[in-house]
Design a protein that fits this description.
Pfam families: MCU. Helix content is about 65%, strand content about 10%. The protein is α+β, with helices and mostly antiparallel strands. Mean pLDDT is about 75; it is low at about 1-10, about 95-100 and about 110.
Length: about 300
C-alpha cells in the first residue's frame, strides 16, 4: 500500500494539445526522461512518424534529461511531424524539487503528501475501530467520541514509537547544517556585493568633485564665467542624457539608491552563481528553510500527547 501511495504521488499530468482542438493527458512519473516521453507518445499514437523534444533548434530527445525538471527550469518544445504541439504540465500536487539540489535525498525521505497520507490512513483506521461496525450510520456524538479516541490513540502511538521521529530529527539536523552553510555563503556574498555598491557610489562622488574643481579652475584660474557657463551647461546636458537613458533602460530614476541596488543585485547573483555553480541557489535556500520549519512543526505537534 505504501508503495502505491508513493507511486501515485510521483505521477504528473502531461496535457498535450492536438491541432484538431482536443487534448490528451499522459500520466508520467517524476523521473521520466525526454526519451521516455517520446516513447510514451509514440506508443499512444501509432500514426506519428517523427516525435522529438527540442530546445531552440537543438534536438535533446536522446540526452536522457529529466523531463519534469527540464520543463520547470526551461521551455522545451514537443515537435511531432514538424508541428510544435503545445502542452501543459500539472505536477498533481507534487512539489517541484530541483533535481540538481543537494537536498533532494533528504527531501525524498520526507515527502509531505506521502506521510500525510499515512497519517490520514492510520487515523481513519483508528476511528473506524471506535465505531460500531454493525451500524450503517452514526450520530454526531458517536463520531465526535470516535475522533477524540482516535486522536488520543494516535498521539500515544507517536509518543511511544520514536523511530520515525528520530529519523525526522536526524534529517532536520542535517538540513539545519546545510542551511547554516548556505547562509554563510549568502553572508559572504552580501558583504562583497555591499562593498562593490559602496565603491560605485564613491566613484560617482569623486567624479562629481572632479567636475566641480574643473569648473572652478576654468572660472577663476584660466578663463571667466562667460567661458565656463557653456561648458557647465553641456556637462549638465550630458548628465540629463545619461539619466534619461538610464530611466528608459531600467524603468527607474537615476538616483543613488537605485544605482546601489542595481550594482548590489548584479554583483550578488554573479558571485552566488560563481560560488555555487547553480542558478537556483536562493530558491533552494528558501525551500530548505520552509522544509525545516515544516519538519520542526511535525516533530513538535507529532510528539505532543493530547
Amino acid at each position: 500500500m505504501l508503495n502505491k501511495i508513493s507511486h501515485l504521488y510521483r505521477l504528473s499530468n502531461l496535457k498535450l494539445h492536438y491541432p484538431k482542438g482536443f487534448a490528451k493527458i499522459f500520466k508520467i512519473p517524476h523521473y521520466a526522461t525526454t526519451n521516455d516521453i517520446v516513447q510514451l507518445i509514440k506508443q499512444e499514437e501509432q500514426d506519428f512518424q517523427n516525435v522529438k523534444i527540442t530546445m531552440g533548434d537543438k534536438d535533446i530527445t536522446e540526452q536522457q534529461l529529466p523531463f519534469v525538471d527540464l520543463v520547470l527550469h526551461n521551455t522545451p518544445s514537443i515537435n511531432i511531424d514538424d508541428v510544435n504541439f503545445s502542452y501543459e504540465l500539472d505536477l498533481n500536487g507534487c512539489a517541484p524539487y530541483y533535481m540538481n539540489s543537494e537536498l533532494e535525498t533528504a527531501f525524498s525521505q520526507l515527502e509531505i503528501p506521502y506521510f500525510d497520507a499515512l497519517v490520514i490512513a492510520r487515523f481513519h483506521e483508528l476511528m473506524v475501530q471506535n465505531l460500531n461496525p454493525n451500524k450503517q450510520s452514526h450520530s454526531p456524538i458517536e463520531i465526535e467520541n470516535a475522533i477524540q479516541k482516535a486522536l488520543a490513540k494516535y498521539a500515544e502511538e507517536n509518543a511511544t514509537t520514536s523511530q520515525f521521529w528520530q529519523l525526522q530529527q536526524t534529517v532536520l539536523q542535517n538540513l539545519d547544517q546545510v542551511i547554516v552553510y548556505y547562509e554563510k555563503i549568502v553572508a559572504e556574498v552580501t558583504e562583497e556585493a555591499t562593498r562593490q555598491g559602496h565603491k560605485l557610489l564613491k566613484q560617482l562622488i569623486v567624479f562629481a568633485l572632479i567636475q566641480y574643481f574643473f569648473l572652478l579652475y576654468l572660472t577663476y584660474g584660466i578663463y571667466d564665467w562667460g567661458v565656463s557657463e557653456p561648458i557647465s551647461y553641456l556637462l549638465a546636458q550630458v548628465m540629463e542624457t545619461v539619466a534619461l537613458f538610464y530611466f528608459i533602460k531600467k524603468g527607474r530614476a537615476f538616483k543613488q539608491t537605485h544605482l546601489f541596488k542595481n550594482k548590489f543585485d548584479k554583483t550578488f547573483y554573479e558571485l552566488i552563481n560563481k560560488k555555487t555553480n547553480s542558478t537556483y541557489f536562493m530558491k533552494d535556500l528558501a525551500f530548505a528553510k520552509q522544509k525545516a520549519d515544516l519538519i520542526q512543526a511535525k516533530i513538535i505537534y507529532g510528539t505532543t500527547s493530547l
